[in-house]
Amino acid sequence: MYVRHSAAVLAAAVVIGAAAPAIAADSSPSASPKPTYPAELYGTTDPTYDGVWRQSLAMLAQDTVGVKPAPKAVDWLLTQQCADGAFAPYRADAAADCDAKTLVDTNNTAAAVQALVALGGHDAATSKAVTWLKSVQNKDGGWGYMPGGASDTNSTSVVVGALAAAGEKPADVRKDGQSAYDALKQLAVPCKDDDGGAFAFQPDKKGKLLANADATAAGVLGSLGKGLVVSPGKETPAADCTDGGYPSPLQAAVNGAAHLTDALAKDGHLTSTLPGAEDQPDYGNTADAVVALAALSGADAAEKPLRWLEQNSAKWAKQSGPAAYAQLILAAHATGTDPRDFGGADLVKQLNATGPAPQAATKAADKDAEKDEKGDSPFGVWWYVGIFLVVGIGIGFLLSGRKKGPQA
């Protein structure tokens, strides 16, 4: 979704990604075996930096369309939680206690809270996670990616979503008298500056606020007190940034939406700022912008980028995997669009195929099997079992290849 980890995690992912092409495949008998990851996990790529994040987004998206995730997928997420309530991106040995070396963070914790609240029945886990989030709030009212890190718009906003989902009032969660809204207002670019109305991720080394599309989409939702799942809003969009300096939370959201609208006006999509990809469309941020605009002003405000995604996002989603499918489903949900016919694609089916079969599909298969056992099928139960095994082999191959999930 709009929070695709901190700059530090991004840097690590970029280094890993940049090094990969230089490493030739070694087919010798002594080559290290290809690592395997839990079958309960959505996607098949290395979950070190995004396991909990993509699991949470996938299940959250499924919930919006009435799909119940497999119990083992939910259980996997729960096992990733540390005793103090925090989540790390991925703990290979979930049976081991978390310690000072366990890199827990606010983003994965907040995403897990939103998913578990939506699924219901996990009050103990979400309560512990919220308590931990409150304990690492910064003095300016915001949150950084890592505990003790400087506040940033993305982390602060995803925590706001978790607090709201858990029934807290973000405005009342304060440190030294400051709330998340105070932190977000300080990260909003003043109207008098270039790109006024946008949000910065953090101030630069000189203290200047530089517009960031990812942060702006996040900041709009955070300022509205919204999480990753939104319903169409009814606020009147602004044509220009107004009420410069440190506006009210609502005005900050309106200003941010105005900036996004301007950025999307020409091509219908945002452009990547990653090194080497500056001229490429940024599909993830465009999906985030759709959610933000719809949350403020309804589906019409997000129509242009939504239509662009319908026509152009299929290849990106296939390469990027479960978190990307989830982002598109959440964008569709925010605008009242059918995710099962998104530019001709069934996003729900595609997302489901990246993880354990959801409960609904499992129950349907069980019903069919029961019918065959009772003689409703002329071929009998063993014919059904044989077909199911063949289909299962095919599904195994379908789930074997996809790229990495969230990115900054």
Please sum up the structure shown.
The chain is mainly α and 408 residues long.
What structural category do the secondary elements indicate?
Answer: mainly alpha
Mean pLDDT: 84
Main sheet: which strands, in order across?
1-2
The number of domains is 1
Indicate the low-confidence ranges by residue numbers.
Answer: 5-28, 364-408
If you compute it from the alpha carbons, what radius of gyration comes out, rounded to the nearest whole angstrom?
22 Å
Architecture in CATH? Answer: Alpha/alpha barrel
Largest sheet: 2 strands, antiparallel
Number of beta strands: 2
Percent strand: under 5%
Query: How far apart are the first and last residues' alpha carbons, in Å?
Result: 10 Å
**So what's the CATH class?**
Mainly Alpha
**Which descriptor suits the 3D outline?**
globular
Order of helices and strands: HHHHHHHHHEEHHHHHHH
Helix segment tally: 16
Range of helix content: 40-55%
* CATH topology annotation: Glycosyltransferase
GO molecular function: catalytic activity
Biased composition (Basic and acidic residues): 364-375
Keywords: Membrane, Repeat, Signal, Transmembrane, Transmembrane helix
Region (Disordered): 353-375
